[in-house]
Fold this sequence. Notes:
With about 400 residues, this protein is of the alpha/beta class. It contains 17 helices and eleven strands. The chain is globular, with a radius of gyration of 20 Å. The structure holds nicotinamide-adenine-dinucleotide and magnesium ion (MG). Nicotinamide-adenine-dinucleotide (NAD) binds next to helix 1, helix 6 and helix 10.
Amino acid sequence: MRKVSVFGATGSIGQNTIDLIDRDPAAYEVVALSGGRNIAQLAEDAKRLRAQVAVTAHEELLDDLRDALAGSGVEATAGAGAIEEAACRPADWVMSAIVGAAGLKPGLRALEQGATLALANKESLVTAGALIMGTAKTHGARILPVDSEHSAVFQGLVGEDFGSVERIIITASGGAFRDWSLEDMARATPEQASSHPNWNMGQRITIDSASMFNKALEVIETKEFFGCSHEMIEVLVHPESLVHALVGFRDGALMAHVGAPDMRHAIGYALHWPERRALPVERLDLAKIGQMHFRAPDPARYPALRLAHEVMEAGGLSGAAFNAAKEVALDGFIEHHIGFLEMAEVVEEVLTRLWGGACHINAEMTLDTVHQTDHIARKTARDVIAERQ
Ligand code: NAD
Ligand code: MG
């Protein structure tokens, strides 16, 4: 039996992971499940899967979790420290699917135990790529990408020499506003930005898809995970979300990964790797689909992509600043303090101020310097938003 843990178990990726585990429960021993405020879901899954421990991120909900687990034999714990502790428990395979910078520490802890880390939490690579890749190397642990684009690239590279790769193209659906004018985007509400045409995901990543901040994070994630130069990475708008990524080789060949927009594919590939096992995903009928469309992203409507390249060029701790500023700007938009297009303006202003000397962006990357940068960038972003009120 494989020992598995799922962090962010109550979220969209977490629930899809549990769906796959549920289909073959005898194959897995569940060590830890973590969640947030959805105690009922967390407790139900932990009891059914006979987890060792269930952890809520919120200490004030510990009693509720204990009540929900009473008599089940599943341990209940709470708080960020408890999530870290759970990540230190021996497991063969750990899903990192907490959203945001909070996913970094548990991922690092799991790697330190030598676990295989299925990485959905792209923020880990964006904020602390060198740290997370270095920790994996030091402890002989493996990281498997779960973002659909990165899983697609990973699959496109099987058996290939990375030295023969010329370019990596990740696709973007264009999100909720792909056919909207700039004027309409300026007036867009969080509710409008929260509905995705193709993928069913958590609210934050759905809004990030509409602004292409998600794609900007993924471009940085690509650079950090595959260790390529940022000039090799391209973004292609593909409204159907069927081609997830393409790898371009020096002989001109493009290897495309084509599949239904269902995260259980990337999750299942990481769960069963290096084998391919049957997955409950739709089989595409290309004759019926008939056409697929591709176009270049409009830089005027998606400034986040330009910012990603500036961040990669600046390097150091810039990714941590970028992600933190983006998270605060996203909160500002969700809470109606700033407009949709202002998110990129806020992030750009934060980067300008930090690169201007408010922070040692080129300091050595440690958990401490990443947290300091995250903290300064969040504070600066809140200041920038307040100045706009
Ligand atoms: P979600 O919002 O649906 O779920 C997030 C999970 O994290 C929940 O279990 C929540 O309780 C937990 N969580 C939130 N804040 C936390 C905190 N501060 N501390 C501890 N736990 C916390 O998000 P999601 O869409 O499942 O995305 C999870 C991660 O996977 C993100 O990094 C996202 O970018 C990435 N991802 C998601 C998809 C997708 O299809 N949903 C695709 C690719 C990558
Ligand atoms: Mg993705």
